[in-house]
Amino acid sequence: MELDLNQKEEYKETELGLLPKDWEVVRLGDVGNIITGNTPSKKVKEYWEHGELDFIKPPDLQNRVISTFSEKISNKAIDKARTVKEGSILVSCIGIIGRVGFASHRVAFNQQINAIEPNNNIYPWFLFYTLQTQQRQIENLASYTTVPIVSKAKFIDVKIPFPPLSEQKKIASVLSAVQEAKEKTEDVIKATKDLKKSMMKYLFTYGPVSLEEAEKVPLKETEIGLIPEEWDVVRLEDVVEIHDKKRIPLNSTERSKMKGNYPYCGANGIIDYVNDYIFDGEFVLLAEDGGFWRKFENSAYLMKGKFWVNNHAHIIRAIESNSVNRFLLYWLIFDDIEKYTSGTTRKKLNQNVMKNILIPLPPLPIQQKIASILSAIDQKIEAEENKKKALEDLFKSLLHNLMTAKIRVNNLEKILDE
Amino acid sequence: MAQNNLDTKTLENWLWEAACKIRGPIDAPKYKDYILPLIFLKRLSDVFEDELNELSEKFGSFETAEDFIKSDHQLVRFYLPPEARWSEVAKKTTNVGEYLTDAVRTIARYNPKLQGVIDIVDFNATAGGQRIISDDVLVALIDVLGRHRLGLKDVDPDILGRAYEYLLRKFAEGSGQSAGEFYTPGEVAILMSKILDPKPGDEVYDPCCGSGGLLIKTHLRFKEKYGDDRTKYSLKFYGQEILHSTYAMAKMNIFIHVMEAQIALGDTMNRPAFLTDEGSLKKFDLVTANPMWNQTFAQSVYENDPYNRFVFGYPPSNSADWGWIQHMFASLKNDGKMALVIDTGAVSRGSGNVGKNRERDIRKEFVEKDLVESVLLLPENLFYNTSAPGVIIVINKSKPAQRQDQILLINASKLYEKGRPKNFLPDESVERIAEIYLNWKEEEGISKIISKEEAAKNDYNLSPSRYVAQNGEDETLPLEDAVVQLKEAEEERKEADEKLEIILKEMGLWN
To answer: A with B: how many residue pairs have Cβ under 8 Å apart?
Structure first.
């Protein structure tokens, strides 16, 4: 399967490096019809009203199959536009260079995009994947005036490896399987994040009880919404110690002189590492300015161990006898903290206002239970993110190995077409 | 005609008292299984008495009338032999369980239509050698239930429906989920009947009809609009229900309402009961349902479907929502219309996913084919077995011209009144929502008309709260829905993982 030195005579030197003898190197112009897009006049309203046909621009080239459609053109504009059929590959060639998308139906596209309507001798998905390995080559073709541009003439000349059709299909099939697994993992991450939101809303309304019990929990209406009757509503300063006075901001010059391993924390997370620390223990950091404070946004985060904090995050710690750090953290994420901030252009959460943030306060064991339920969901999200990252790395590695024929799949039987 | 002498408060006190009599030997969720058949018997008995009295006047004497009826049972709705009438049952003090059970079986023998309906409860049943309900308790229960007359002129026919709803609401909370009973709150059923707006001659179908609530409300809506002249107009009703005890309730209900209805027992998804001579699904003018939300079916149910129902795609295993919708859709005539109540996730799950998603893709087909007419978001904590809100989806095969390529989204999430343990939609809200739908109106903060393109832009998410925001409301999914969504994503991912593993194994990269 891997390149075997004894079989080296089966390989030949090409302008794309060492490739199997039965592979060729071809120009894009050899494998399909190349079309540069255009934009029907924006002045003619009827071209853009009651749109029928998706009109693709480089920002729409996000996913494998193009699925973001920001604009449509009407039937009246179809003669004025350039369109390609389903199975065509679109590549951005002005501005952002080398983004690739697969068209699952007939589309129109603007002048920043060159499209390839593939011939029968090339498998469209193979073309799609192989173009991803040619991003450097395409970028190097760009002429720079104000924005980088790859002309159609140059685009036609882009070289790609060209294995026999059956192997093209197998290569595409392997890569699609990895991409599919990655995309499904992204969906799992999204669903888990949605579950976290729903769970927060549920736990902060009924407490950590089963669905059946939830109906029977006596609730009361408070300034922060419905909560179980037995909970209190308190102000943040009643349940935390505030350690803002110990914070020390360091500018980048200072930090460059003290590179190290201790996290240096700002409004929204770790921004650098330094060789000293001013805090040791578990704390909640809540953005003071430059934060994202809306409902479900990460207005706060938890830090453990030895670290440094600048003056953009409040640093607080639960008073152990009546509250739990993680519980407070999740409330600060759940609640809309923006309503406490002031300022118009750059919003700020002043310490005095922060002290008055209202917090629901269940008994300690309940706080712990809520925190551990939500932490379990967070751990799942993290594990899924790691899996996604691993699949991305696997994809890159396979893409490189398959397109350079370091791994061959031509003789594998179970790998079928898509 | 029928007067409602039994006001809600009296009815509730009455049922409460009856429930108190069997408290202890019977679990609260099962109160209704004993109380409702007895109420039905009382009603049959009182109606029979009314008919007997009427005929006595006609024939001159009570004895003649009795003789005539005895020889021709067609003279009355249901024939009750003397020993099975309430007055006789109420006299018994010993062997009551046995007597009562015999009485209902006798009635079923004389009236084949009531077989498997009135005779399903064994009042004489024992558990571990002990009577479940002792004769003393039965006597007390019969005494309480005998207190009100339930004849034609005494109460409105909805007595059984109202009693059912009360017992369920009061005693069956929390048990509904496992029991599979998904009673649709009366006001939601009324709203749906107004949306469906039945016309003379329509055939109406409910594939998971439960105790028949939605069909009955459709019948009542029709009567309200077209009057009670049965010779001129009529509706035909069809319902199927999987649970025997609930099926029996539906039958009792339609008998009391004198509806022209066929109720079938069985599993609609695997064995739909209403078929044409050729064996394909019968088609109806109107289809209405509140199917079990997020029901689990094996994929084989969809893959091996002999009725060609799932043409828009197979739903995921852990939520049959779009399976039910497609069953209903396949049961519609070419110009038919359907409305169903379902969890909110059915209109939002999968939208925004990167890859394929079965529910989104099926929903997309319905939108692209311009079949979805309206989606209505209901308030939270309205349904008996869940605090989750729920939506009504209206699908119309012949949308009026001015509604083409448009969908009306109604956010009724705030139009409720608080109640314990359940919230409810007050009459004026039902009126208002129905009026918005029927007049196809946009109203600030309540409803919005979106184009097909707008739906496409939102990746076919049809959640009304997404388009019609209300103060302080967020788009957080109900917890149950969020879990279903996660399970679906995991199921899809599992397939992708397995496929990848096979490939990597063959490449020698996975050991």
So the answer is: 110
